[in-house]
Structure formats: structure tokens, C-alpha cells
């Protein structure tokens, strides 16, 4: 566009609210986190001393932090993979059926609206070792389910809760992607004798890859940062440290453990990770625009 | 339809029905559990069919037991205030800043854009402790301002409006200026009507975002006059294991998810549009 309004001061006035909120509630705290990361504060907040990179060194040499890094990786990639696989499967099926695709869409997308914390509570009850129907069914087939003591089972539970909520989102994007694939391509392949599975892996899946990649990044970001509620409302990081992700640890060390220096250092590490992920996301979007 | 494979179609329907079943299962169990007396949860498994306590449970939750009023209604109001405050706040400040960035040329324009972009990289979860300290210093704990204001800066909404404004032809601006319309008149008479659907679509997405906030209300409210529904479910669960009133927890959980779910189902078209456009 090449036509602009000539006013000199009005644009600053228009930008003021957004910039003010950003400065006070985003930039200032972020700056504080960076500053705090170089100090060691006593538990009462009375005095603090400059410790340089000690907080970071302590962080990167602590086995607990590496455990939480590993937990975050396992958790995020499980959520992303499971969510994408199930959603893609359902979307392919919904794309196939002519009658009722919209009805299925309505019936499948509403979990998007459920808060992560509530999703956690709902599945928590289904898997409750003493009364949950799913846990009892698992017991009946000889699988002893108790997420209160078994770390792996606790992890499975939070992965299921987090994935359940995200399937709707992935489903919508996959369905839109599938419907954008030209029918003539698939018809030509069918005439050449390619069956449904060959058409899927040979044509549909490669053509969907931009959508899949986009969803992979979005799902990883979701699993990293938006699943605090799932974990806090259910396992609270336990048993032991088995479901303590990095974001949960920032909160836990800061508010429960009151180790502000370490919590701030972890915030800085997480900010670097988000920045990297945002850059990847935008690189990808730029590339798509050039198509 | 590319070819006729009836068996495959039947299979597709079966898979979809199974998907719908699994997606609905937890809510079904919650719904059923909310109709039983709390004694039904002491032993054995959760009942899978409706009990006869539905009215009593919902009444207790919404009206309160004899002598004490219910907290749930107040929490619902708090949730609504927070969700609507965040939604309108985000839409308002994003509209204004996108308007400034697209329709004006001024020094530091791109700097302002990058500052806004930066907020995209700093979700509240990763800088939770210092943000809490800032809000505490400003004396905003236990207030509606503290619940909403820190969450209303939004890079995504600004991007969406910027995208939408950039598609408005320059001739429109020219015509408006020839007809003597200033920037404020242009904003209200031309820009707002043109971006109506975008605003509505964004409203759906942001309402869900605001309603479902969990960590933030959990740490900035200690006064139960400001508790919201979503966070309160957690508080009902943090009593010792045997004392959890599961039927009441289920009523609160359902109540906390009904408004956003209704918004998604009722405004499905706008919701899909909002989702697809905010992410691209």
C-alpha cells in the first residue's frame, strides 16, 4: 500500500497501549529474569550477591536439570507424534466419507475448548488406580496400573491427557490440507491402478508435508509451554521427578523451592529455546510464501 | 469419490466412531459421576450409568448447601470477567497498534513492530517468577486488573490485523481522504466494518484462551473473591485423597468447560476461520 495518513503524533498514541503493556509485563520481567540469573539471593530475599555464571554452571551440571530436559523431550515428542498420528488417521477417514464429515468434525473438535488442567483432571479420574474404569480394565488384563508410584505410567497419563486436547486442532488442519489436494491427481493414480494405501503414501502424505511440519512445530510448542495445567492438576511433577518438565521446574523451583537465582537462569534458558522455535516457525512460513 | 469401496467406507465410519467415542469418554464419565452421591466413589469403580443425585449435586454446587452460599457462581462470574477482559483488551490494543503500523509512516515504526513481535517469544510460563514480582510491586495481586492486564499484549492478534489491513486497497484510503475523512473517521467508518469477521473469529479464539487460563490466576489470586473456575478445580483436588468429593469436582469441571465448548460448537465456522488465520 502506498497511501498513508500524514499525522505525525497519532500513530504513537495508537501504539502506546500495546507498547506500554509489552514493556511493563513482558520486557521488564524478562530483563529481571536475565539480571536475577546472575545473582544468588538468600531464602528471605534480604540480600543478594553477584555470582556471575554460577547459576548456569550449577544448572548444567545438575543431574536433575538434565533429567527434566529428558522428561521434556520424551513428553513433547510423544505428545506431538501421538497427536499427529491419531489426528491424521481420523482426518483421512473423515475426508473419505462423503456423508457426515461435518458432523464428525463437530464431534471431534470441541476438546480444543477444554482447559489443559481440566483435561488432566478428566483423564486422572479415568485412570484412578482404585476406581477409574480404564485402570480397572487394565488390571483385569493383568497390567498393574498405579501412576502414583510408577513414573512411566504417570508419564503415559499426562501424555494422553495433553494429546487428547490437541487432536482436535491437528484434525482441523489435516482435514483442510486433505481437502486442498486436487482430486484429479488421486483419480489419475486410481486409473493407473494405485490402491488407497499406495495413493496415501505416494501422493497424499508427501503433499501434506507442509501441514505436517507446521503442526509438528506448533505441537512441540504446545507440549513445551501450554501443558503446565495438565501436569500441575494431576501428577504435580511426580512421582519423584518423573513428570517434571522444564516449564514445571521453573515454577516449582521459583515458587515452591524459592531458589530464585536458579529459577531465573532456567527462565533464560527457556527464552532462548522459545526464540529458536519462533525463528524456525517463521523461517518455515517465509518459505511457504515463496511457493 | 474416486472409486467405490464399500468396505473401506464402513471401516472409515467405524474408525471415526471409535475416535468420537474415545474423545467423548472422559466427559461421559464426568457427566455420569456428577449424578451420584459422594459415597459412590468410596469403593469399587466409578459408576458408568446415571445415578439419581443429579439435581441434588448440581443444586448444591450452584446454590450452595444450607447456610452457606455457593462459590461456583462467583467463580463463574470471575472467569467471565477475566475471559472477556482479556479478549476485549487484546482485540482493542491490537487493532490500534496494527492500524498505526499499516496506515502511518513514522520513525521507529519497524522498531515498534519488533518489540511487539518479541512478546511472541516470551510466554508467561517461562518468566513466571519475575512477572509475578512486577505485578506484586504494582499492587495488582487479587484484582481484576492483575488477572487480565498482564495477559492482553498479543503479538498474534496484531499480526492478524496487520495482515487483514494490508489487504485493504490504497484507493480506499485515498477516496476517504478526498472525501475529507480523517484517520479517526476512516478507522470507525471503513476499517472496523471491513474487519468485522476477523474480529469475530479472533473473539472466539481469544475467549477460549482467556477462559482457560490456569497458572496465572493460580498465582496472582490468594483471596477467594477472585478465584476462577478452571483454577478452583485444582484446589478442590488438593485435599487428602479420601476426602475428595468427586461428584462436586465433576460438577465444577463440567461447569468450567461448558462455556468455551458451547462457543466452539455454536460458532464453529468462525472458530475454524480464527484458528486457521491466527496461525498462518
From TrEMBL, chain A:
GO biological process: one example: transmembrane transport
Spans traversing the lipid bilayer: 65-91, 103-126, 154-178, 199-225, 264-285
Membrane topology: Multi-pass membrane protein
Keyword Cell inner membrane among record annotations: yes
Key words of the record: Cell inner membrane, Cell membrane, Membrane, Transmembrane, Transmembrane helix, Transport
Membrane keyword on record: yes
Cross-referenced Pfam families: BPD_transp_1 (PF00528)
Subcellular compartments: Cell inner membrane; Cell membrane
GO cellular component: plasma membrane
Segments forming domain ABC transmembrane type-1: 69-281
Family: Belongs to the binding-protein-dependent transport system permease family. UgpAE subfamily.
Quaternary structure, from the entry: The complex is composed of two ATP-binding proteins (UgpC), two transmembrane proteins (UgpA and UgpE) and a solute-binding protein (UgpB).
Protein name as catalogued: sn-glycerol-3-phosphate transport system permease protein UgpA
Native organism taxonomy: Bacteria, Pseudomonadati, Pseudomonadota, Gammaproteobacteria, Oceanospirillales
Automatic annotation (TrEMBL), chain B:
InterPro entries, sorted: MetI-like, MetI-like_sf
An annotated GO BP: transmembrane transport
Nuclease found in the keyword field: no
Keyword entries, A-Z: Cell inner membrane, Cell membrane, Membrane, Transmembrane, Transmembrane helix, Transport
Name of one Pfam family that matches: BPD_transp_1
Membrane topology: Multi-pass membrane protein
Location(s) in or outside the cell: Cell inner membrane; Cell membrane
TM segment ranges: 7-31, 80-104, 111-132, 144-165, 186-211, 244-265
Domain ABC transmembrane type-1: residue ranges: 76-267
GO cellular component terms listed in the entry, alphabetical order: plasma membrane
The UniProt record lists the keyword Kinase: no
Similarity field: Belongs to the binding-protein-dependent transport system permease family.
PANTHER family (alphabetical): ABC TRANSPORTER PERMEASE PROTEIN MG189-RELATED-RELATED, SN-GLYCEROL-3-PHOSPHATE TRANSPORT SYSTEM PERMEASE PROTEIN UGPE
NCBIfam families named among the record's database cross-references: PRK10973.1
Subunit structure: The complex is composed of two ATP-binding proteins (UgpC), two transmembrane proteins (UgpA and UgpE) and a solute-binding protein (UgpB).
Function: Part of the ABC transporter complex UgpBAEC involved in sn-glycerol-3-phosphate (G3P) import. Probably responsible for the translocation of the substrate across the membrane.
Name of the molecule in the record: sn-glycerol-3-phosphate transport system permease protein UgpE
Gene source species: Marinomonas fungiae
Amino acid at each position: 500500500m502506498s497511501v498513508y495518513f500524514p499525522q505525525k503524533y497519532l500513530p504513537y498514541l495508537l501504539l502506546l497501549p500495546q507498547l506500554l503493556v509489552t514493556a511493563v509485563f513482558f520486557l521488564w520481567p524478562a530483563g529481571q529474569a536475565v539480571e536475577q540469573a546472575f545473582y544468588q539471593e538468600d531464602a528471605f530475599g534480604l540480600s543478594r550477591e553477584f555470582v556471575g555464571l554460577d547459576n548456569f554452571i550449577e544448572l548444567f551440571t545438575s543431574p536433575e536439570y538434565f533429567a527434566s530436559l529428558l522428561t521434556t523431550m520424551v513428553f513433547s515428542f510423544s505428545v506431538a507424534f501421538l497427536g499427529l498420528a491419531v489426528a491424521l488417521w481420523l482426518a483421512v477417514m473423515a475426508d473419505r466419507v462423503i456423508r457426515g464429515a461435518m458432523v464428525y468434525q463437530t464431534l471431534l473438535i470441541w476438546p480444543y475448548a477444554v482447559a489443559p488442567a481440566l483435561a488432566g483432571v478428566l483423564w486422572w479420574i479415568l485412570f484412578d488406580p482404585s476406581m477409574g474404569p480404564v485402570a480397572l480394565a487394565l488390571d483385569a488384563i493383568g497390567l498393574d496400573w498405579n501412576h502414583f508410584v510408577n513414573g512411566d505410567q504417570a508419564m503415559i497419563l499426562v501424555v494422553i491427557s495433553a494429546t487428547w486436547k490437541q487432536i482436535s486442532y491437528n484434525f482441523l488442519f489435516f482435514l483442510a490440507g486433505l481437502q486442498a489436494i486436487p482430486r484429479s491427481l488421486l483419480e489419475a493414480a486410481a486409473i493407473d491402478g494405485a490402491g488407497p494405501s499406495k495413493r496415501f503414501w505416494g501422493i497424499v502424505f508427501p503433499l501434506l508435508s507442509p501441514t505436517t511440519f507446521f503442526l509438528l512445530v506448533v505441537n512441540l510448542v504446545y507440549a513445551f509451554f501450554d501443558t503446565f495445567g495438565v501436569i500441575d492438576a494431576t501428577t504435580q511433577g511426580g512421582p519423584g521427578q518423573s513428570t517434571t518438565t522444564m516449564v514445571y521446574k521453573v515454577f516449582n523451583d521459583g515458587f515452591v523451592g524459592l531458589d530464585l537465582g536458579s529459577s531465573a537462569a532456567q527462565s533464560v534458558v527457556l527464552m532462548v529455546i522459545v526464540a529458536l522455535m519462533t525463528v524456525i516457525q517463521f523461517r518455515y512460513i517465509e518459505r511457504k510464501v515463496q511457493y | 469419490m474416486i472409486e467405490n469401496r464399500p468396505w473401506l467406507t464402513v471401516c472409515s465410519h467405524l474408525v471415526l466412531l471409535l475416535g468420537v467415542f474415545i474423545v467423548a469418554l472422559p466427559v461421559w464419565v464426568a457427566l455420569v459421576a456428577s449424578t451420584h452421591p459422594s459415597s459412590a466413589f468410596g469403593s469399587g469403580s466409578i459408576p458408568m450409568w446415571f445415578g439419581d443425585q443429579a439435581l441434588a449435586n448440581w443444586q448444591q454446587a450452584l446454590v450452595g448447601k444450607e447456610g452457606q452460599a455457593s462459590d461456583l457462581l462467583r467463580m463463574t462470574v470471575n472467569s467471565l470477567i477475566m475471559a472477556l477482559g482479556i479478549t476485549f483488551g487484546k482485540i482493542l490494543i491490537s487493532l490500534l497498534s496494527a492500524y498505526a503500523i499499516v496506515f502511518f509512516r513514522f520513525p521507529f515504526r519497524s522498531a515498534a513492530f519488533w518489540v511487539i513481535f518479541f512478546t511472541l517469544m516470551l510466554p508467561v510460563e517461562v518468566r513466571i517468577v519475575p512477572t509475578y514480582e512486577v505485578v506484586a510491586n504494582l499492587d495488582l495481586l487479587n484484582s481484576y486488573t492483575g488477572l487480565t492486564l498482564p495477559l492482553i499484549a498479543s503479538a498474534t492478534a496484531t499480526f492478524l490485523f496487520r495482515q487483514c489491513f494490508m489487504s485493504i486497497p490504497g484507493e480506499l484510503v485515498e477516496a476517504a481522504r478526498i472525501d475529507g475523512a480523517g484517520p479517526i473517521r476512516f478507522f470507525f467508518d471503513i476499517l472496523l466494518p471491513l474487519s468485522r469477521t476477523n474480529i469475530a473469529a479472533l473473539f472466539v479464539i481469544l475467549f477460549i484462551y482467556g477462559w482457560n487460563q490456569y497458572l496465572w490466576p493460580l498465582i496472582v489470586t490468594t483471596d477467594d473473591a477472585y478465584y476462577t473456575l478452571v483454577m478452583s478445580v485444582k484446589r478442590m483436588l488438593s485435599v487428602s485423597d479420601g476426602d475428595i468429593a468427586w461428584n462436586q469436582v465433576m460438577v465444577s469441571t463440567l461447569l468450567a468447560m461448558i462455556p468455551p465448548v458451547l462457543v466452539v460448537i455454536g460458532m464453529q465456522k468462525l472458530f475454524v476461520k480464527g484458528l486457521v488465520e491466527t496461525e498462518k
